[in-house]
Specification:
It is a single chain. With about 400 residues, the chain is of the alpha/beta class. About 35% of the residues lie in helices and about 25% in strands. It contains eleven helices and 16 strands. It has an eight-stranded mixed β-sheet with strand order 1-2-4-3-5-16-6-15. The chain has a four-stranded antiparallel β-sheet with strand order 10-12-8-13. A two-stranded antiparallel sheet has the order 7-14. A hairpin with a 3-residue loop joins strand 1 and strand 2. Helix 6 runs antiparallel to helix 8. The longest helix has 21 residues.
Amino acid sequence: MVRMLGWLAESRAIHPWVVEHRRAIHRQPELAFQEVKTAARICATLRELGIPFREKVGRTGVVADLRVRDGAPTVALRADMDALPVQEETDVPFRSEVPNVAHLCGHDGHVAMLLGAARLLAQNRKALPVNVRFLFQPSEEKPPGGAPEMIRDGALEGVSEVFGLHVAPEVPVGHVSSRAGPIMAQSDRFDIVVTGQGGHGSRPQGAIDPVPAAAELVGALQTIVSRRVTPGEPCVVSVCMMRAGDTFNVIPPRAELSGTARTLVPETSEAMPKWIEEIAQNVAAAHGCRAEVRYERGYPPLINHAGSVERIRAAVESVLGEGRFLEHPVTMYGEDFSHYVRLRPGAFAFVGAGHPDRGPVECCHSSRFFLDEEALAVGPAVFARLIESYKV
């Protein structure tokens, strides 16, 4: 019991150090596979902690190994490092100093929490039953993601189980949520080009206008969810970008749409490209246009292993108390951590980072995303307790 309470107390003691790292990374965000400054900070910190590491894993990633016992299993803990190509609109004093790039998904907090866990575990290495591998991964935000490249460079070699944490503003601070089985979706991308014939806006009869076809196509694609997918099955088809024309009085020759399809059921995932192709071709033809569809597979669904989720639950309740572990709903977000748990047992969990009583919650990827830094004391303590809990 003393040790269990000790992890949270120790994490709170180093909390200012963790916050300092988070804010420094927040000021200097870097996009996918450009995380050079972030990786340099990680390496410098690991060097200070006396933890051996490898650089340039998966291009810009860092892998560190805290070896405490010969012959013991190795458990991996992962954090992602990249930022988003979005302009930050918060008023925090440590806001992004890089135009149109910002940490608006909490990856700065993930790196800081994993560094915090590394410090806690290094300080208590004699008490640890297993070896620990720290995975600082690039490019979670940009498919095909950094996880496959990390894996190709040996990040999972010798690893018996792998865990990841993600901040969640919709979960209250002081809680952690997860679930066994599917928790995040297959996330794919589609691009559609509708081609007609341009003309003058005053003479639509002399043109073949692709804009009405594209507009109709936005609504028609929704029939996939409402009419082709089994009712109650999680599925999302969202058109998120549209482009057509350059000026107000010219009918353009083409219109472009881009969006995402999110699925959890393999049969639906398999059929999705065919359904989108059929609808695009038929709607375009009805307007006298042509359609070209490009469909790109993204991250596979993230499926947590039940035993690994139970480890997280036990660690959370040990550190934070009964009732602080929550059952997370199935979400349609995508996450390349899914590649790790397809190869090794493991689980992904969410660290509460929101205070609903402080106003509307800004979700991840919002330009006003807010991370409550109290969460940065929870992640390291849960990771540390998780490692200590192994019996070998």
